[in-house]
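Entry 14. Structure prediction run on the chain below.
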Amino acid sequence: MSTPTTLTTPSIAELLDLSGKTAIVTGGSMGIGAGIVERLHEAGAAVVIADLDLETGLALAEQLNASRSGSALAVQTDVGRRADTDTMVSAAVERFGGLDILVNNAGIYPFAPFLEMDAELFERVLRVNLFGVFTAMQAAAKQMIAQGRGGKIINVSSIDALHPSMVGLAHYDASKHGVWGLTKNVALELAEYGIAVNALAPGAIATPGASGGAVDPDVLRETEQRIPMHRMGLPDDMGRVALFLASGLSSYLTGSQIVADGGMLLR
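Output returned:
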């Protein structure tokens, strides 16, 4: 894309206004994904909640549609299947007329000691956490390029893309390092089309997965003690950062990763 010849200074309200834009959020029915969906929707975007858990996604879509009719759609999506990521993009275009924002948030983190980890588990984590990001980005980018108006892609990585948070996550850490590398390389390739590609690296976030037994309570307490801000992050904390990356406030960012961890990596 050519460099703009006239620079304008939009107001804060204009920079944060996502009216007329369509966003897809994978893993968007709960936790971090729901926090992101809610903030993008509040800013005016139409949202596609792409999640394997269709029932919870439909409930969130119903809630959002009650506040703004016809503004949210839930689509059952297994990001580990390429056909599903293609379908979610097609659904966004069919329902809302295009695609402007993609947030790759879906991910899994089944704990397993490295020496006990089997190949099938390792492959499953990489298929969801890394291959799913690849296929979703590719489908979205092709649509954005065809539209000719640029776009925003946000990949939810993790502080584990930079430093391991605990043992038992070798497969997860490998996938998240891959997401960060993929983000940077694709940002190089898509910049000429006006598509910004950035990453959001959450730290320890209080989500249903973490508090519902997926993580040992003693580990959670120990983790919280390591955070300089003395609290776990909330899904809305991530929603706010995602809104920044999806909005005009991040107009000169691509190939960057924002760490939102309450200072945890400072320890």
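The first helix runs from residue 12 to 16.
Filed with the rest of this week's runs.
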